[in-house]
Design a protein that fits this description.
Layout (H helix, E strand, L loop, with lengths): L16 H81 L9 H17 L2 E3 L12 E7 L10 E6 L2 E3 L2 E4 L1 E6 L1
Helix pairs in contact: 1-2
């Protein structure tokens, strides 16, 4: 009994094996494309390596250049301060040369030198800290001692300033040494 709907193919007839042949031809085509894809990936890899090496070299040059510039800036900054103070040193030498025979110094000349020095360092951003009468602030003041306050309103405040504090710009470069009332 054979089913009329289903018949067996004869040996000479083409079977779905022809599809297998097409697949093999397709894979052969893929094989020829694959080396070009590999070459493309290799060239892309080489390009990325080159970019990476150049970036590392550029960063190293940047680091070296910034270190050089920083050193030059530090040298230049101190040079400018020294140049600003040199005229004051000259004035002090002149004042020493004019000491009287009795060893007395002209106070007016000392005041002029002090004012000149104050103006020179103020031009570089230095300013004195006002502490006397202010509330004690450990971020600005260094308490040397505590002393009984002469009045009730001076408790916890600076009574006397032993050594001035200074700002350079907005930064405290020397804390004021003070006496605090208790």
């Amino acid at each position: 009994m054979t089913n009329p709907e289903f018949t067996q193919p004869e040996e000479n007839e083409q079977t779905p094996q022809a599809d297998n042949g097409a697949e093999t031809n397709g894979s052969a085509a893929e094989t020829t494309d694959q080396p070009s894809a590999e070459q493309k990936l290799q060239s892309e890899n080489a390009e990325l390596k080159d970019k990476y090496i150049r970036l590392v070299a550029e960063f190293d040059n940047f680091r070296k250049r910034t270190l050089r510039e920083k050193d030059e800036l530090v040298k230049t900054a101190s040079e400018n301060v020294i140049k600003a103070i040199l005229p004051v040193l000259d004035d002090i030498e002149r004042a020493q040369a004019t000491y009287g025979e009795d060893g007395k110094v002209d106070t007016q000349g000392i005041e002029l030198i002090f004012n000149k020095l104050t103006k020179a360092v103020a031009g570089k951003g230095l300013k004195a800290m006002e502490s006397k009468g202010q509330a004690f602030d450990p971020d600005l003041h260094e308490s040397i001692t505590q002393f009984p306050a002469p009045s009730e309103d001076l408790k916890g405040k600076v009574i006397d300033e032993v050594e001035k504090g200074y700002y350079l710009g907005d930064k405290v470069i020397r804390f004021a040494k003070v006496v605090v009332g208790v």
